[in-house]
Structures are given as structure tokens and as C-alpha cells.
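Structure first, sequence second, as always.
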């Protein structure tokens, strides 16, 4: 099993969008039995809240299924539990490294690194632009799937 955890500040906009986009990609590729995919928050602000309505609306528009969920908090134990810990921006990476006490196994990544971009996923909490966030997330998740295929981590 390949275990992927997406992380953003509050776990209501970007990281759940990435979670559901990635789940959809692996389902469409017939690979969902090979993955555990989830998302969590680096901060407590939104704990217990469901996915942001703007994220849900964008996922609906794109035909990507999602489920009701609650924002949950990232913790030190998540480092051992997941193979890929993927942040949306540099602040998330900083928070993750603080929570984990570093990254000795090199499991921490920025999502857009997988798209060949050195950048951050736009935060719609501040911008209100869920289209831009979706484009970033989609590029990153597709790049992540290609990365896993190139590394021969998938069984097709």
C-alpha cells in the first residue's frame, strides 16, 4: 500500500481537495486498492469542520466525488504512518517539520514539486479563487501519480 497524506493549514480547502482529486485519479486508473489517501491540518483553527463549501462546489463542477468529513490535526505519529506527507505551501512544510522533528526519511514534499513547479498551491481561503487552487492541485496530483509510476511503485 502507498500511503499519502495531504496537509494544509486548516484541512478544509486545499488538502481535502487534493485528497479527493487523488482518490479520483487512482480510482479511474483502477489502482485504488493500492492506496490509502487522507488529509489533515497543521493547525487547530478548523478542527471538526467539514470541507469548505467552495472546495465542494469545485469538486462537484469537475465531477469528482467526495464525502462528508471532519478536519483533523496532524501529529507526530503520522510521520511513521504515511509514505508521502505532502504540504501545499512553505508554511505547511515548516509546520510539518516542527511537528515531526525533521524529515529523516525524506517523506515530506510540496505538492507542486510533482508538477515540476517550484511553487505553492494557491490558498482559496484568502483568494476566494477555487478554480486556481483546483488547477494547482490537479497538476500536482497528476504529477504525483506519474512520479509513482516512474518509481515503479504501482502494480498495474
Amino acid at each position: 500500500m502507498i500511503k499519502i497524506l495531504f496537509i494544509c493549514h486548516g484541512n478544509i480547502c486545499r488538502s481535502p481537495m487534493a485528497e479527493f482529486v487523488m482518490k479520483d485519479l487512482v480510482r479511474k486508473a483502477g489502482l485504488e486498492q493500492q492506496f490509502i489517501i487522507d488529509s489533515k491540518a497543521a493547525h487547530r483553527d478548523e478542527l471538526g469542520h467539514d470541507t469548505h463549501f467552495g472546495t465542494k462546489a469545485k469538486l462537484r463542477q469537475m465531477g469528482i466525488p467526495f464525502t462528508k468529513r471532519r478536519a483533523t490535526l496532524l501529529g507526530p505519529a503520522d510521520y511513521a504512518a504515511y509514505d508521502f506527507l505532502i504540504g501545499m505551501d512553505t508554511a505547511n512544510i515548516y509546520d510539518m517539520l516542527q511537528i515531526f522533528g525533521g524529515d529523516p526519511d525524506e517523506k515530506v514534499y510540496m505538492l507542486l514539486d510533482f508538477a515540476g513547479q517550484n511553487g505553492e498551491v494557491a490558498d482559496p481561503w484568502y483568494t476566494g479563487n477555487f478554480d486556481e487552487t483546483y488547477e494547482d492541485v490537479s497538476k500536482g496530483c497528476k504529477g504525483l501519480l506519474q512520479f509513482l509510476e516512474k518509481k515503479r511503485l504501482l502494480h498495474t
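Margin note: The beta strands are 2-8, 35-41, 84-87, 108-110.
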